[in-house]
Amino acid sequence: MFASYLIGLREGLEATLVVSILVAFLVKSDRRDRLPYVWGGVSAAVALSVGFGALLTFTAAHLDSRQQELFDAVASIAATVFVTFMIFWMRTAARKLSGDLRAKLSEALGLGAAAVVVMAFLAVAREGLETALLFFAAAQGAGATSSPLIGFTLGIATAIALGWGLYKSALRINLGKFFTWTGLLLIIVAAGIFKYGVHDLVEGGVVQVLTAPAFDLTGALPPDAWYTTLLNGVFNFTPQPTTIETIAWVAYLVPVLVLFLVPARKGPGASRTPSATPASAAS
Fold it and tell me: Its topology with respect to the membrane (predicted)?
């Protein structure tokens, strides 16, 4: 549940910030008449994301066992690639996110109502599709349980509440630190998703090397114990992983963590870490 909550919170807050910046810009610019077009684009993006998630679930449910293993493997590896790119992109893009969105919306306003709808749609759709893929991969790794959906829903709800508080200036959080800490946690989650993808490749018969157990901790971590379930749900940790799964986990986690912890280079105008209020950024 925690991993799904983190995905919902992180991805949901990114999307909420985007919407808040767009809405705040229109309000500050006295263009409230264009708000319905923004909400129309946002609604279309949400519908597309939900539909994409449903398509992934429907496809996985109508495959035979080997096809499903391969499908889950591809989804897990793709989710790992996307979330890794997003983590590093957001580390630098957060500094200029508000300015870029305001510039694009200003240009769209000059082109007409349809351009505003498309601009809002594209701004949110990327986050939504990425979230759907990442959640699907995490849920597949968690197995047949409702916990991922509950955690994801709570994460989205928390993100919306935070976004509303930021928009109303009732809350102030350091977005730089927020994205740094959630980025670190998501890297660990992504390492588990990548490990699960490799596991599915083994189960699907694509990978047939180094499939012997790397170690066995079932004595210290019984599979039915709550703390084992917690480790599995958050980090996709299993007490008896294969050698290839362990190599995949380490091969992803170590270099990505090192690269993430190296301070990002700041451009000429990027000396300040973004604050937390989209509304103030749009004024």
Answer: Multi-pass membrane protein
Q: Residue 213: helix, strand or coil by DSSP?
A: strand
Q: What is the DSSP string of 177-209?
A: HHHHHHHHHHHHHHHHHHHHHHHHHHHTTS--S
Over the stretch 156-174, which tens digit does the pLDDT of each residue have? 888 888 888 877 765 676 7
- The rounded distance, in Å, linking the Cα atoms of 159 and 163 is 6
At 211, list the tokens.
């499939």
Closest residue by Cα to residue 41 from 92, 99, 91, 104: 104
Closest residue by Cα to residue 51 from 149, 128, 121, 153:
128
pLDDT of 233 higher than 70: no
| Highest mean pLDDT of the ranges 14-18, 44-48, 139-143 | 44-48
Q: What is the pTM of this model?
A: 0.73
> What is the tens place of the pLDDT at every residue in 175-215?
677 778 878 888 888 888 898 888 888 888 888 888 888 88
Angle formed by the axes of helices 226-235 and 2-28, nearest 10°: 40
- 263 DSSP 8-state letter: P
Q: Reduce the DSSP state of residue 110 to 3 states and report it.
A: helix
How far apart are the C-alpha atoms of 39 and 45, rounded to whole Å?
10
Ramachandran angles phi, psi of 242, nearest 5°: -80, 165
Among residues 253, 39, 251, 236, the alpha carbon closest in space to that of 140 is found at 236
Q: What is the CA radius of gyration of the chain?
A: 20
